Amino acid sequence: MDGQQAETRNDEGRDVVLSARGVTVGFGSKVVLDNLNLDIYRGEILGFVGASGTGKSVLMRTVLRLLPRRSGNIKILGQDFDELDEPQRNALDMRLGVLFQQGALFSSLTVKENIQVPMREYLDLPQSLMDELAQLKIRLVGLAADAADKYPSELSGGMIKRAALARALALDPELVFLDEPTSGLDPIGAAEFDELIARLRDTLGLTVYMVTHDLDSLFSVCDRIAVLGKKRVMVEGTIDDMLAFDDPWVQAYFKGKRARSIVPQSGHAGKDSLAQDSRGK
Fold first, then answer.
1. Nearest to 58 by CA among 176, 217, 211
2. Which residue in 39, 74, 130, 244 has the fewest CB atoms around it within 10 Å?
3. Which PANTHER family match (predicted)?
């Protein structure tokens, strides 16, 4: 165990829970990601941004082994899937949770049954225990108990997001992937969902990889930001790092009209200022 922990620490002594090195992904003659590097540290919320079509979701799906890569190495929680046998891969999968952009709930299953899908896939539990665990996850994400027996068609957009998050948390993961978690939500619903993510990170000790376009999320809950462009991670760091980075798209994104006129202070003060400005109007 000590050897594994040593392999997952960077030069500053921080635990690296996800490490991508030299990752290249393409489709036919088109290269989407080229020699990409990225680290995610334990306990942080990383906001991953980039222009539409740059490959944000492609990278997330590649990390999750839903898409093949042409080259490069990816380690999650100190382990390389390519070096693991099937039982070891299943054990690592259980330490990950995923919320896809539209929730991706099974329409023919109730909320409770959707949450139980990962339990049925990876565990052998009695139905009564799965029912109790599903109710626990439902309460954890702020849904009413009676949501358990509702179908996705009976849920609002915000409820669908929370139900999908409950399913992502079904196996008590350490690393959670969120793909555009606030898309389609009104400003109040998006702010509440951001607060939920931050609270769950703090109470459960999660590490969160969040693909997002939501500037409010970036300023209010993300500890670091990584910007994808030119087929690689162009810059990663704090809001101040983004504002200081000399790239036209990055400058337009973080200083443009959608960013309001707030110039954040260093640390959380800047996050709070923008969140108050953009959500209070």
1. 211
2. 244
3. PROTEIN TRIGALACTOSYLDIACYLGLYCEROL 3, CHLOROPLASTIC
The per-residue pLDDT for 14 is 85
- Spatial CB neighbours of 207, under 8 Å, sequence gap ≥ 6: 17, 18, 40, 41, 42, 43, 44, 45, 174, 175, 176, 201
The proportion of the chain whose per-residue pLDDT surpasses 90, expressed as a percent, equals 70
Which residues neighbour 270 within 8 Å (Cβ) at sequence distance 6 or greater? 219, 239, 240, 262, 263, 264
Domain boundaries, the chain: 105-172
SS3 265: coil
Tokens 């969902």 map to which residue? 193
pTM: 0.85
Per-residue pLDDT tens digits for 170-186: 999 999 999 988 888 88
Closest CA to 73 of 16, 136, 157: 16
Query: For the chain, what is the radius of gyration of the CA atoms?
Result: 19
Averaged pLDDT score across all residues of the chain: 87
The tokens for 268 are 């959380």
- Is it the case that residue 279 has pLDDT exceeding 50? no
**146 Cβ neighbours under 8 A, 6+ residues apart:** none
Residue showing tokens 């969160």: 208
Segment 54-67 mean pLDDT? 92
pLDDT level of residue 2 (50, 70, 90 thresholds): very low
